[in-house]
Amino acid sequence: MLVNAKGGCGKSTLATNLASYYATCGKNVTLADMDPQGSSFGWVANRPEDRPVITAIAGWKEPVRASKDTDVLIIDTAAGTEGKELTALARKVETILVPVLPSTIDMRAAKQFLYKMLLMGRISREETKVAVIANRVRENTLIYDKLNSFLRKLDIPFVATLRDTQNYIRADERGLGIFELAPSSVYWDLEQWQKLTRYLNSKRSRPE
């Protein structure tokens, strides 16, 4: 599940690219979009017919119930998802990913949100794992250095750094993920995603 109380941090982009990754790996993927804006839902509707099928759920108006043959369920939450709603969604997943942007406002908001989330019973008991991602970064900048330092000081796994690039926009416009673009054009992005996918495919991302 992709979650952050603050909007605009890239939850939908990460959700759709994770769906693309697992689908290209031959998994049956269900992507539940909880935001009435329907960004992830629309992305699935825009996928070319010759690409691996991804099932979409309009989670803002219907229950999130993946079919029995689903291998991977990905939930793209709406901004401001907290409290009882977040607790209920957390019961459906093994892993929560929190993307954080390189800005003082985003870091401050993330700190407050993570503090509240880590007090949730299911998460405090480690029945659901939590990890953070530095998203849309430009390395070798002062603000990235501050974000990197901030995330490494958290008592939460810091599992990936994803750069700010137009490749995600190009993929999104076509209903694709970067894993479905020409490898030569997304070489550095695939390198960065390896850390995230390695984490998600490991026991570290799942409750014992």
Give an overview of the whole structure:
With 208 residues, this protein is of the alpha/beta class. The chain has a single domain, classed as Rossmann fold (3-Layer(aba) Sandwich), CATH 3.40.50. It has helices at 11-24, 39-45, 83-90, 104-118, 121-124, 142-153, 167-173, 187-200, and strands at residues 29-33, 54-58, 72-76, 95-100, 129-137, 158-163. A 3-stranded parallel β-sheet has the order 2-1-3, with helices on one face. Strands 4-5-6 form a 3-stranded parallel β-sheet, sandwiched between helices. Strand 1, helix 2 (39-45) and strand 2 form a beta-alpha-beta unit. The radius of gyration is 16 Å and the shape is globular.
At a glance:
The protein has 208 residues and is of the alpha/beta class. Helix content is 39%, strand content 17%.
Characteristics:
alpha/beta; 208 residues; three-stranded parallel beta sheet; Rossmann fold
Please state the CA-atom Rg, rounded to the nearest Å: 16 Å
Which CATH top level class fits? Answer: Alpha Beta
Distance between the termini: 18 Å
What's the CATH H-level homologous superfamily? P-loop containing nucleotide triphosphate hydrolases
State the helical fraction. 25-40%
Topology, number of strands: 6
- Indicate the overall shape: globular
One letter per element, helices H and strands E, the order comes to HEHEEHEHHEHEHH
Strand order of the largest sheet: 2-1-3
Secondary-structure arrangement, i.e. CATH architecture: 3-Layer(aba) Sandwich
Which stretches are poorly predicted, pLDDT < 50 over at least 5 residues? none
- Total tally of structural domains: 1
